[in-house]
């Protein structure tokens, strides 16, 4: 072990790393730093949009930063109030909490600057999900909703193509296949189950809150769980713990309840002859697809100048006009101009914008404590429908779960 | 006695072979999955080898240089790993020497106090840690990956344990010969624990694959990330995977540098520690 | 002369001590402070005294009490299952590899070490596919029909196998390095006395690698207490939260959806830290008793 060599080596590496870090932090003050949680291919589509925008040589170019654990990162920078990004893409269900914790800058100036960034130019629920007490805090990029994929070949095999006639597969129709499926085939999987449960609650005219208090233990929730549990008991749902999403891709499942965005992965599977429809419901009169939205927002940051906000407005206006690229990610673009364009019709998810009824079916929850409710359903939902926990006990536990979290989380920020 | 040796030899062979088969099947399966199309991944039945070999997954991975420059990540990692490893070995051996060979008041108490403090799981420590890094201006800098890791106690604990196994006579005879403390450290103790230091180096080079949060917090610049942070952009840690073949491909590309290092290093860490090495000072 | 003697240790342990105080001690102290507060990670923490601890330890009706006890129970089960395996298997491998007549040592060693390099998300996916009821090797090859992740004890089996697969390599090379350091003279004289392989292992190998054994035992235990990625990815904590370990609850509380509940998460982390401290201290004391 030659010590001198070691010391020399470490001095070299240390000085090299100091050099590297020295040139690391030089950010053009005119750059709009834009954080988003779009990992994988989604990030690439966003990157394409940003690149195209920067090609127009704007005064404030955008730098897209993809982060796999963005919310954790948001907490760290907001806490130290340094390196706060100029623009951030957040999910709709974060908005009420962020506003309450005083983390978001309203979009007021942006809206004043670009007159076309207004409610009537966006899908209404995406726009209003960003509004808290008559203040607009976000501008939506998209709606991403649950969707139900169907395997055309399997529908034909079992002679049930008529399920789709009225665009809604009902519980009764599904139950009619009880005992009629070959071994190894399943009617429906349990992917994104909590979203399905929430959609059924809305179908039953229920809600997840009452006067601002969380309402999980409700008759509607109970009925929703009972109905889904019946599908399980009839042996129609993929077994607990199985990757039902992959089973759909391998052609063993008639219906897959996942998200609009998975069509991109389904397309990769040769010979998977599939289509998209609504999440199953009680009757064709009322169907719901639980949705969320990616929304542009500005975290509180004193260093952000008014000029820069104008630059952000410029970018958002560009996105409003040119976000057809984002449709490639399988998302329903929020800008009406894009959604109504002929190019958008080429994408599978345009099914959900094809008529008023479909548009109305996209439901975004805006209740402040929605995230806790979804977490409760994610934790207990499978146990309940597969009969490991009784419905009554499960409902009471989930209600308490949400209430405890609210009580503990509430420190006025 | 000969018979005895033969039995133990065969027992050893059987044990190792069975274990290795169990261990290698998933590696092959995972690697082969990276040469499969999504259609084949989801087709029923188990096959170890792809029916249709495709390299599309790798093309897709390597082509995506804007949001996932995997080769750049590997280079960044290499730089971080090499400098971190060198510093770790220096700091660790020096510190471990202090805690095992030098005599000072409350030495062991201090050591165990530090060890104890380091045992607390650092979940919410993320926020203060980030503030510290920011004070130093190390956000987006490799220094944030290199320096804080030097404070860890694990490797020091390991090397200290090995050093304690070296009889005191070595130091004493050297001291009689008039050797200073640093000479004893560098000329006598270091050579003897070389295999452990190589193990330590290997560990710090391998890095922590399970540390999801820190690299993500430190970096916001895709170009500057190490592979650990980068992979998270390709692989959703919450299991929300879509393109299985690509995920596998990126995982296996990522292990190449460390694997090569391991193959190189394994010759050295099983070298005898040679406690009979000359006490030549 | 006396002054010099006092300064010398500083030269050796000083640099690390400084790093330790800045990068570990300060954040840990802050984490402990946070455990006495209500904190959403954004605003200022609000001092609540022992409230979080009271809730976790004594409020039987609280969700957090359930999460803490259930998480701790599952974590302890994981530790009890994993630690012996993570010590014994690598030890057996190293002893087997030390057998002079064994060939292809580096091949065996490489195969057993490489899984530890695979990122945990890829490892989890590999094993999930291997145990997928339709696509996997387990059911197809052995004609089983089990949904592994949703039934006990299979769910635990999945968590254990993926942890073992990636986890044995580290201890294995520590033992390899330690056993290589044993003087061959010891074995030779034992052989002259006609000692069996088992005797040699018991009387020579084990005592000679006592220090590395203590190290691996203590660190492996601490590591197992911190487990979270393997159960998160293999079973998502199910069925019925029976593989939901404490670190998963802690992380969700602090960084999950919805407003962060970081004070409670810190209190859980501190309690977990205390438990790790007591257990590893006990292990160290027992193992080390005979020498110093």
UniProtKB/TrEMBL annotation, chain A:
<keyword id="KW-0762">Sugar transport</keyword>
<dbReference type="InterPro" id="IPR006059">
    <property type="entry name" value="SBP"/>
</dbReference>
<protein>
    <submittedName>
        <fullName>Multiple sugar transport system substrate-binding protein</fullName>
    </submittedName>
</protein>
<dbReference type="InterPro" id="IPR050490">
    <property type="entry name" value="Bact_solute-bd_prot1"/>
</dbReference>
<dbReference type="Pfam" id="PF13416">
    <property type="entry name" value="SBP_bac_8"/>
</dbReference>
<keyword id="KW-0813">Transport</keyword>
TrEMBL record, chain B:
<keyword id="KW-0813">Transport</keyword>
<keyword id="KW-1003">Cell membrane</keyword>
<dbReference type="GO" id="GO:0005886">
    <property type="term" value="C:plasma membrane"/>
</dbReference>
<dbReference type="Pfam" id="PF00528">
    <property type="entry name" value="BPD_transp_1"/>
</dbReference>
<feature type="transmembrane region" description="Helical">
    <location>
        <begin position="12"/>
        <end position="32"/>
    </location>
</feature>
<feature type="transmembrane region" description="Helical">
    <location>
        <begin position="142"/>
        <end position="163"/>
    </location>
</feature>
<dbReference type="InterPro" id="IPR000515">
    <property type="entry name" value="MetI-like"/>
</dbReference>
<comment type="similarity">
    <text>Belongs to the binding-protein-dependent transport system permease family.</text>
</comment>
<feature type="domain" description="ABC transmembrane type-1">
    <location>
        <begin position="74"/>
        <end position="265"/>
    </location>
</feature>
<keyword id="KW-0472">Membrane</keyword>
<keyword id="KW-0812">Transmembrane</keyword>
<feature type="transmembrane region" description="Helical">
    <location>
        <begin position="110"/>
        <end position="130"/>
    </location>
</feature>
<protein>
    <submittedName>
        <fullName>ABC transporter permease</fullName>
    </submittedName>
</protein>
<feature type="transmembrane region" description="Helical">
    <location>
        <begin position="243"/>
        <end position="265"/>
    </location>
</feature>
<feature type="transmembrane region" description="Helical">
    <location>
        <begin position="184"/>
        <end position="205"/>
    </location>
</feature>
TrEMBL record, chain C:
<keyword id="KW-1003">Cell membrane</keyword>
<dbReference type="GO" id="GO:0055085">
    <property type="term" value="P:transmembrane transport"/>
</dbReference>
<feature type="transmembrane region" description="Helical">
    <location>
        <begin position="110"/>
        <end position="133"/>
    </location>
</feature>
<dbReference type="InterPro" id="IPR000515">
    <property type="entry name" value="MetI-like"/>
</dbReference>
<protein>
    <submittedName>
        <fullName>ABC transporter permease</fullName>
    </submittedName>
</protein>
<keyword id="KW-0813">Transport</keyword>
<dbReference type="Pfam" id="PF00528">
    <property type="entry name" value="BPD_transp_1"/>
</dbReference>
<feature type="transmembrane region" description="Helical">
    <location>
        <begin position="261"/>
        <end position="286"/>
    </location>
</feature>
<feature type="domain" description="ABC transmembrane type-1">
    <location>
        <begin position="72"/>
        <end position="283"/>
    </location>
</feature>
<keyword id="KW-0472">Membrane</keyword>
<keyword id="KW-0812">Transmembrane</keyword>
<feature type="transmembrane region" description="Helical">
    <location>
        <begin position="12"/>
        <end position="33"/>
    </location>
</feature>
<feature type="transmembrane region" description="Helical">
    <location>
        <begin position="209"/>
        <end position="229"/>
    </location>
</feature>
<feature type="transmembrane region" description="Helical">
    <location>
        <begin position="153"/>
        <end position="174"/>
    </location>
</feature>
<keyword id="KW-1133">Transmembrane helix</keyword>
């Amino acid at each position: 072990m030659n010590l001198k060599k070691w010391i020399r080596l470490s001095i070299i590496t240390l000085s090299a790393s100091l050099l590297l870090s020295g040139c690391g932090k030089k950010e053009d003050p005119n750059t709009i730093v834009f954080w988003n949680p779009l990992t994988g291919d989604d990030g690439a589509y966003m990157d394409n949009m940003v690149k195209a925008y920067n090609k127009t040589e704007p005064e404030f170019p955008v730098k897209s930063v993809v982060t796999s654990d963005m919310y954790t990162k948001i907490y760290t920078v907001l806490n130290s109030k340094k390196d706060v990004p100029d623009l951030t893409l957040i999910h709709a269900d974060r908005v009420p909490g962020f506003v309450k914790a005083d983390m978001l800058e309203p979009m007021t100036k942006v809206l004043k600057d670009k007159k076309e960034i207004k409610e009537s130019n966006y899908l209404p629920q995406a726009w209003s999900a960003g509004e808290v007490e008559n203040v607009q805090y976000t501008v939506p990029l998209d709606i991403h909703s649950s969707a139900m994929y169907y395997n055309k070949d399997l529908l034909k095999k079992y002679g049930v193509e008529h399920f789709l006639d009225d665009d809604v597969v009902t519980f009764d129709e599904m139950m009619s296949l009880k005992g009629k499926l070959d071994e190894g085939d399943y009617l429906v999987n349990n992917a994104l189950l909590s979203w399905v449960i929430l959609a059924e609650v809305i179908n039953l005219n229920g809600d997840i809150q009452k006067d601002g208090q969380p309402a999980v233990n409700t008759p509607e929730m109970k009925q929703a769980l009972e109905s889904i549990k019946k599908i399980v008991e009839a042996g129609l749902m993929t077994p607990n713990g199985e990757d039902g999403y992959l089973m759909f891709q391998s052609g063993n499942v008639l219906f897959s309840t996942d998200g609009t965005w998975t069509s991109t992965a389904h397309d990769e599977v040769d010979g998977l002859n599939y289509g998209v429809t609504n999440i199953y419901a009680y009757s064709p009169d009322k169907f719901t697809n639980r949705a969320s939205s990616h929304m542009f927002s500005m975290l509180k940051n004193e260093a952000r100048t008014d000029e820069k906000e104008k630059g952000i407005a410029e970018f958002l206006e560009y996105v409003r006009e040119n976000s057809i690229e984002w449709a490639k990610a399988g998302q329903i673009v929020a800008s009406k101009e894009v959604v109504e364009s002929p190019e958008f019709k080429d994408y599978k998810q345009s099914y959900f914008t094809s008529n008023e009824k479909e548009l109305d079916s996209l439901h975004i929850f805006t209740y402040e404590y929605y995230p806790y409710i979804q977490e409760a359903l994610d934790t207990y939902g499978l146990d309940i429908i597969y009969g490991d926990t009784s419905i009554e006990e499960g409902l009471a536990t989930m209600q308490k779960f949400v209430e405890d979290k609210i009580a503990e989380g509430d420190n006025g920020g | 006695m000969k018979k005895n040796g033969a039995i133990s030899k065969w027992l050893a062979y059987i044990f190792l072979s069975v274990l290795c088969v169990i261990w290698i099947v998933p590696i092959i399966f995972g690697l082969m999955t990276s040469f499969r199309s999504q259609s084949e991944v989801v087709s029923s039945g188990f096959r170890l080898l792809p029916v249709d070999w495709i390299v599309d997954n790798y093309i897709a991975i390597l082509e995506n240089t804007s949001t996932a420059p995997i080769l750049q990540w590997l280079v960044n990692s290499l730089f971080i790993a090499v400098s971190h490893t060198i510093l770790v070995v220096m700091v660790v051996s020096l510190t471990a020497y202090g805690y095992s060979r030098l005599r000072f008041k409350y030495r062991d108490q201090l050591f165990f106090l530090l060890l104890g403090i380091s045992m607390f799981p650092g979940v919410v420590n993320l926020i203060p840690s980030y503030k510290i890094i920011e004070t130093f201006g190390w956000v987006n800098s490799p220094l944030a990956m290199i320096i804080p890791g030097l404070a860890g106690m694990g490797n020091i604990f390991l090397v200290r344990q090995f050093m304690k196994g070296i009889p005191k006579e070595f130091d004493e005879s050297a001291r009689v010969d008039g050797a200073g403390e640093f000479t004893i450290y560098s000329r006598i103790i270091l050579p003897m624990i070389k295999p452990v230091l190589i193990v330590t180096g290997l560990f710090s080079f391998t890095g922590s694959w399970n540390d999801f949060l820190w690299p993500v917090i430190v970096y916001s610049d895709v170009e500057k990330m190490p592979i650990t942070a980068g992979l998270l952009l390709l692989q959703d840690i919450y299991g929300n995977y879509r393109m299985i073949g690509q995920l596998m491909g990126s995982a296996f590309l990522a292990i190449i540098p460390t694997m090569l290092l391991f193959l190189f290093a394994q010759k050295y860490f099983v070298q005898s520690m040679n406690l009979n090495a000359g006490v030549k000072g | 002369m006396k002054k010099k003697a006092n300064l010398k240790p500083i030269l050796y342990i000083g640099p690390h001590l400084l790093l330790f105080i800045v990068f570990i001690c300060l954040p840990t102290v802050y984490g402990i402070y946070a455990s006495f507060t209500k904190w959403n990670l954004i605003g200022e923490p609000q001092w609540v005294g022992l409230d979080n601890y009271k809730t976790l330890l004594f409020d039987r009706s609280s969700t957090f009490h359930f999460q803490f006890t259930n998480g701790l129970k599952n974590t302890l089960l994981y530790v009890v299952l994993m630690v012996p395996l993570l010590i014994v298997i690598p030890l057996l491998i190293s002893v087997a590899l030390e057998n002079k007549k064994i060939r292809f040592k580096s091949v065996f060693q490489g195969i057993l070490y490489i899984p530890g390099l695979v990122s945990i998300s890829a490892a989890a996916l590999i094993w999930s596919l291997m145990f997928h009821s339709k696509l996997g090797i387990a059911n197809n090859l052995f004609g089983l029909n089990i949904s592994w992740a949703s039934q006990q004890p299979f769910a635990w089996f999945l968590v254990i196998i993926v942890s073992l697969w990636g986890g044995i390599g580290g201890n294995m090379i520590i033992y390899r390095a330690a056993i290589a350091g044993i003087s061959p003279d010891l074995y030779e004289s034992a052989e002259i006395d006609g000692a069996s392989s088992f005797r040699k292992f018991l009387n020579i190998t084990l005592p000679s690698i006592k220090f590395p054994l203590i190290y691996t035992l203590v660190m492996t235990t601490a590591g197992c207490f911190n487990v979270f990625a393997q159960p998160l990815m293999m079973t998502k904590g199910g069925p019925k939260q029976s593989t939901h370990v404490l670190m998963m609850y802690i992380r969700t509380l602090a960084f999950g959806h919805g407003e962060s509940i970081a004070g409670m998460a810190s209190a859980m982390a501190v309690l977990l830290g205390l438990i790790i401290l007591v257990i590893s201290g006990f292990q160290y004391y027992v193992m080390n008793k005979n020498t110093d």
